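Hello,

Our lab assistant flagged a job as stuck in the queue for most of the afternoon. It eventually completed. Since we weren't sure the result was trustworthy after the delay, we are filing this so someone can double-check. Below is the sequence as submitted and the structure that was eventually returned. Let us know if re-running is recommended.
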Amino acid sequence: MRYAQGGGLTAEGRRRREQVRLEAAGRSERRVPAAVIAAELRVSERSVRRWRQAWQAEGLAGLASRGQAAQCRLDEEQLAALDVALGAGPLAAGWTDQRWTLARVRDLVASKFGEPYTVPGIWYLLRRRGWTCQLGARRAIERDDGAVEVWKKQTWPRIKAPRRPSAAGSSSKTSAASR
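-- returned structure --
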C-alpha cells in the first residue's frame, strides 16, 4: 500500500488501520457481504476478502499489525550525518556541479556508511527524511531577460487574439445560434 507522504504509517496510523481490519472481521462474522463492508469502511473489496481469509485462518492474530514493512538500515546518527552531508551540497561531497541525483545519494550512502541501497530505496529514504524532488530552472546562456520582458509587454498583446464576448448561446447542433 502506498501513502501520499511516502513514509508509510506511523504507529498511530498502523493502530487505526488495525482497528479497520478488526471492524471488517466483526462485520464478516455477521455475514455482511464484502462489497458492503468495503463501501462502509472505504476500503477495497479485495482487502476485505484478504482480511476475511486471514481472520478465518489465524483468528484475530491474523489481523494484527506487523509493524513497518522494512526497517531503515541506517541508525539515527547516520541519518543525521546524511542530512548534514546532503545539506552541504554535492560540491562538498566531491561532485563538480550542484545537482543531487538519486544515484549520487546512493553512492554517498554506500561510501560513507557502507550500506547498499537501490535507487528506489534511496528515494523512499529521502522522502521519509523530508527531502523533496527539486527541478532546477534551466535557462539558455544566450537568454536576454530584458528582451523577453519587452516582447511580453509590447509584442504579445498585439498578436494575442481578443476573447470572444460572452453571450447566451445554444449547444444544440440544430439551432442557428450554434452555427
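-- support follow-up --
The delay was a queue issue, not a problem with the job. The result is valid. The chain has a mean pLDDT of 84. The helical segments are 11-29, 34-41, 45-58, 76-88, 102-113, 119-128, 145-159.
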